[in-house]
């Protein structure tokens, strides 16, 4: 069975608190309580990553308010081909074969160039 990507929730400090509304409250005292819970939370990093990845707007996540998260720089995850030389960002970066397979277009073209060079050498 694949790992549950949200298994970190089981270790969350806020898991069983009786007043989860503090994470969504506009009041300073509630926000201070939420921030204190997050500060000691063992899965703060996972919680923050989850909120950023899912573009979750409301509430405290990973110790950050919505406004704080909005100011955080997003590191876009760029996928690379097997050679790690080329980024694969859109369909145009692939070459498609009739059997449904697709490969990195830049690697494929480089292979064709190598074969051509070997033949004419
Ligand atoms: S970081 Fe805060 S909001 Fe996130 S799981 Fe921990 S206590 Fe809950
Ligand atoms: Zn490639």
UniProtKB/TrEMBL annotation:
Q: How is the cofactor bound?
A: Binds 1 [4Fe-4S] cluster per subunit. Following nitrosylation of the [4Fe-4S] cluster binds 1 [4Fe-8(NO)] cluster per subunit.
Q: Do the record's keywords include Nucleotidyltransferase? A: no
What are the UniProt keywords, alphabetically?
4Fe-4S, Cytoplasm, Disulfide bond, DNA-binding, Iron, Iron-sulfur, Metal-binding, Transcription, Transcription regulation
Chain residues that bind [4Fe-4S] cluster? 14, 38, 41, 47
Residue ranges of domain 4Fe-4S Wbl-type in the record: 13-71
Q: According to its UniProt record, which protein family does this protein belong to?
A: Belongs to the WhiB family.
What is this protein called in UniProt?
Transcriptional regulator WhiB
Species of origin? Gryllotalpicola koreensis
Supply the source organism's classification: Bacteria, Bacillati, Actinomycetota, Actinomycetes, Micrococcales
The gene that this protein is the product of is whiB
